[in-house]
Amino acid sequence: MTSDLKSSGSVAGARVLIVDDDPIARSLASAALEQNGFTVSEAEDGPSALEAYEREHPDLVILDVMMPGLDGFQTCEELRRRPGGDRVPVLIMTGLEDVESVSRAYEVGATDFASKSINTLLLSHRVRYLLRGSKNLEAFRDSQATLNRAQRVAQLGSWEWDLIQDRFLVTEQTLKILGTTVYKFAGTLEAFKQSIHPEDREAWIQSIEGLLAGQSQHSLDHRVVRATGVERMVHEEAEVERESQGEALRVIGTIQDVTDRRQAEAQLEYLAYFDHLTGLPNRRLFLDRLSHTLQTAIRYQRLGAVIAIDIDRFKRINDTLGHSVGDQLLQEVGERLVQGIRRSDMLARYSSADDGSVTVARFGGDEFYLLLNEIGSAQDAAKVTTRLLEAIAKPYTVAEREIVLTASAGITLLPLDGEDVDTLLKHGDAAMHHAKEQGRSRYHFFSETLNVAAEARLELEERLRGAVDRGELLLHYQPQISLATRKIVGAEALIRWQHPQKGLVPPGDFIPLAEESGLIVPIGAWVISTACAQAKVWQSMGLPLLRVAVNLSGIQFTESNVVDTVRDALETSGLDPTRFEVELTETIMMRQIQKTIATVGELKRLGIRITMDDFGTGYSSLAYLKHFDFDTLKIDRSFVKDLTSDHNSSAIVEAIIAMSHILDISTLAEGVETPEQSAALQRLGCDEVQGFLFGRPVDADTMTAILLEEQRNSPRVVNL
Question: How is 408-476 classified by DSSP, letter by letter?
């Protein structure tokens, strides 16, 4: 049937080929059909009919049986062998009305059989009926093909258990899921049950029995085992078809292979609750377990403890030996902490099971936390901490180098030192800082007399309070490079503190204090204003810098009118909004999500760009992409550093890049330090990079010189 006929939904204008060696018969039939709106062509014998079919592709063929040479039966049989010929309705007409002729017509593929003596008006109705039937059949075939494609893509099959005849019918996709073929599948319920994992089979049987008894629905996840031994996870849904009296006639079900989805869900859950580097529980999972333990301790008057452990001078390790060595050390420290826990300490074993057994966690950097669910006295916590600090202090061999670490720890007792999670963590952190102040490589219990560390922090806070007015703060800029053009396309503004006594203080040493004290709000406003002003200078100079990026603190984002701050900075500087970008971490996204969505929307309406920073390291990152209109995802350095040596890191980065491009979001990888990492990122389709390979953070004057050089010597070439 032609595409015109199918698309029109009508048989009017359909092309009909009449084949008859009798010219009078052909003329009468043609006249009748043309009068009823059909387009008619004629052929006088079998060979010319086949030629006409190839040339005109009619929607229906009327064949006379009695023709010289190639008769109607032979012509029909040959027509069915031609491309598309199996779908064209064929009406055989003859004066022969014996049973043998009728049977012969249907054997060679005729759609219908009629006598030549048929009234011409009835002939038109017969043709119209055949065309409508053909159209409906074609639509059914298309629908079935579409359904088959959809089921194939969704890995969705179906089955039917005929209870009356005890037959079990399955679709091709079901056979594929089961890892078998129609020739090997016995077509019985027992054969289907045998494909179910032995440990899941009884649950499947009980579910089907409950369905038949009308007591439950059949919605079940279970495993199937293929002949090769490979296990796949499937999800099944089924319902019963009953007769009017309620007797069950058949069970109709669907089966979907959800193995890949479950693996992806498990990976997402792992990223949400476990630290990527060490495999230990992360802050989120630890806090959940701590909350449970605290409630239990309060209810049953038990004593527990939280131990905060921080590696002494670990930044020096990263700066001198590199982050790769630092990461290996962190992994070993985590392993030693896990091995150092014994049941005699009344610590639950390390596990991800729902038994409250989170004992060791990494919060980030070189910060580890331990939970002692129940202890007899504070001395028990001291014994545990002493043994763990001794384990950390044993020499490490990394990259053929012997390294010695020490750690400081703070102990807070629950619920004595706090009846909420935040207070306990704060007190543990205060005790740990006090231990560092006392000379490191020791532990300290929290007490209300910890004033020495508090006074030191207060002094630093007071100095920081006036740093903006005294001009002690400055911005450094780290270039961001397009992998496609090798040109600088942006720069991240990074704050520094020029302390009169301590020299250049990195942000990690004073930003946390600024956030705790609330100073981050005025400091953040200064950063935004200064970055906009500097970007405007570069814009006015015609330098090839497309944008300047600024990190927003969580407190600055949620507790200040950051939209007004950005708007004022743009208006005051006169900077084109498209040249300004703000970076938000996943932690920020977790706080008051509806308010965050609204704030991000207001920022976007200013015309600036929005980037998600440290993507994949915080919470369930993928869940937030649909809520926020991001321009860029910044791939965290923790994935980049292992890109060329760890298959999992490479797979995660590839998935992030592919997903981002599908969502029309660009990607920027940070922490790129080697040509191999850069080449791998370019191969995976990453758009932009940032890291020491392309440039360290520099002051505004130096960045200006770099941009001027870029302008003179374009394009910028980096040896890979």
Answer: EEEEEEETTT-SSHHHHHHHHHHHHHHHHHTTSSSEEE--TT--HHHHHHHHHHHHHHTTTTTT-EEEE
Q: Where are the beta strands (DSSP E) in 226-295?
A: 231-242, 248-257
**Owning domain of residue 28:** 3-150
Q: For residues 460 and 452, what is the distance between their CA atoms, to the nearest angstrom? A: 13
- Which two three-digit tokens encode residue 608? 């600036």
**CATH number (domain holding residue 219):** 3.30.450.20
Helix (H) or strand (E) holding 613: strand 609-615
Q: How far is CA 427 from CA 297, 358, 419, 450, 454, in A?
A: 18, 20, 11, 10, 12
420 and 532 belong to one structural domain? no
- Rounded to an integer, the average pLDDT of 55-62 is 92
Quick one: tokens of 637? 């350095």
pLDDT at 348: 39
457 in a structural domain: no
CA dihedral over 715, 578, 699, 708, signed as positive or negative: positive
CA distances from 382 to 89, 229, 307, 309, 425 (A): 91, 51, 9, 13, 17
Label residues 708-719 b or e (16+ Cβ within 10 Å = b): eebeeeeebeee
From the list 662, 658, 666, 590, the residue with the least C-alpha distance to 621 is 590
Q: Which of 485, 507, 569 is nearest to 535 (CA)?
A: 569
pLDDT in tens, 608-637: 999 988 776 655 455 567 677 889 999 988
Q: What is the rounded distance in angstroms from the CA atom of residue 356 to the CA atom of residue 345? A: 15
List the end-to-end C-alpha distance of the chain, in Å, as a whole number: 59
- Indicate the number of domains in the chain: 4
What's the one-letter identity of residue 169? L
Angle between helix 452-465 and helix 421-437 axes, rounded to 10 deg: 100
Q: Which of 257, 289, 318 is the last residue of a domain?
A: 257
Whether residue 597 is found in the same domain as residue 654: yes
Considering the domain architecture, whether residues 587 and 646 belong to the same structural domain is answered as yes
**pTM to 2 decimal places:** 0.43
